[in-house]
Amino acid sequence: MLCKSGYHSESKAKEYKHVCKRACQRAVDRLKAGALAVEAVAAALIELEDSPFTNAGMGSNLNLSGEIECDASIMDGKSLHYGAVGSISGIKNPVVVANRLLSEAQKGKLSAGRIPPCFLVGRGAHDWAVSQGIPPCPSEKMATKFSLSAYKRNKRKMELAEKIDTGHKQTKKRRQSSENVSAVLSVRTLILSGLSSDHLARANQNAAHYGCGCWAENACNMNPYSTAVSTSGCGEHLIRTMLARECSAAMQSEDAHQALLEAMQNKFISSPFLASEDRVLGGVIVLRCCRCVEAQPSQNIQGILVEFLWSHTTESMCVGYMSAQDSKAKTHISRLPPGTIPGQSLAIEGGVCRLMSVVE
């Protein structure tokens, strides 16, 4: 299952769907070859990082200094181990580093009883990756024409907004008429709103944070359902609400659709941690499964009930999903209902897949 929330233009809908299909197919191919689920997830994310149409890896948004810094995280629902990198530069596929951290953590303690790291950032993350044999990639080679033009456009908007902000402060100091002050405030509000919808050029800050970018947890005595959650959107909003972990916890309710609806409404849109925000922007995909047995006259049928749901407050979200039984991946660009306001309302969709097998 894959997601990318934000704004998806109709003109590029085919490209967005195509990259999601390729990523799904890559993961399923790995599973059919006998790979572990974590390895399949990493393979799918590498496909996304290599695409110039996603804000991850190749073609990522540039930060305010004109550099590419990436985040990535991955979590094993069985061992509950976690690996992540933040603000890493010069590595083509950040998820490879995160996955290596995860696998190293699963090996146990280091010499002298040291606990292996689960989260590395910046230059230290880059150097550790290189020491593990992961090849470096010059940051300038990861930029694309689209990301460079977006950086220049957003930088101009920010510079204009700062000039207007400075002009507003100088106007207040000179104590000019209230009409002039009101005019400056109105223009400033419009420009800041435009910057928000265009997405500032910066690193995707939510992906690496524990409980915010992803969460996975297998069923146990206390939890009847296994869950896997991934988020996308405004990093600051996802971090302050720990949205991935909150949605995973909510999925232990019987009605998954209603549980996700309430979690997104109460833990995200109406979260007290975001009370000062005018618009709360984010998206989440959830995979939930449990074992079930259905008695038949001649045999017992045991299978896995799989539910896949997604929800978002952003204008749109592109999702892709595929099971090992499918011949090809399914993709969909979900959009908010007409007339609703991004960041203040939400869309929620999903489906159920029942995979059955004979128990001897």
How would you describe what is shown here?
GO terms for molecular function: threonine-type endopeptidase activity. The protein has 9 helices and 11 strands. With 360 residues, the protein is of the alpha+beta class. Helix 5 (145-173) packs antiparallel against helix 6 (178-198) and helix 8 (243-250) packs antiparallel against helix 9. The strands form 3 sheets. It has a 5-stranded antiparallel beta sheet with strand order 5-6-7-8-11. Strands 1-9-10 form a 3-stranded antiparallel beta sheet, with helices on one face. A 3-stranded mixed beta sheet has the order 2-3-4. Strand 7 and strand 8 form a beta hairpin.
Percent of residues in helical segments?
A: 25-40%
| Number of E-state strands | 11
> Beta fraction of the residues?
15-25%
Morphology: globular
Report on the biggest sheet. Answer: 5 strands, antiparallel
Mean pLDDT: 82
Number of domains: 1
Q: Cα-atom Rg, whole angstroms?
A: 22 Å
Structural class: alpha+beta
One letter per element, helices H and strands E, the order comes to: EHHEEHEHHHEEHHHEEEEE
Unreliable parts: 175-204, 356-360
Number of helices: 9
How many angstroms separate the termini?
Answer: 31 Å
Strand line-up in the sheet with most strands: 5-6-7-8-11
Keywords: Hydrolase, Protease, Zymogen
Family: Belongs to the Ntn-hydrolase family.
GO biological process, one term: proteolysis
Protein name: Threonine aspartase 1
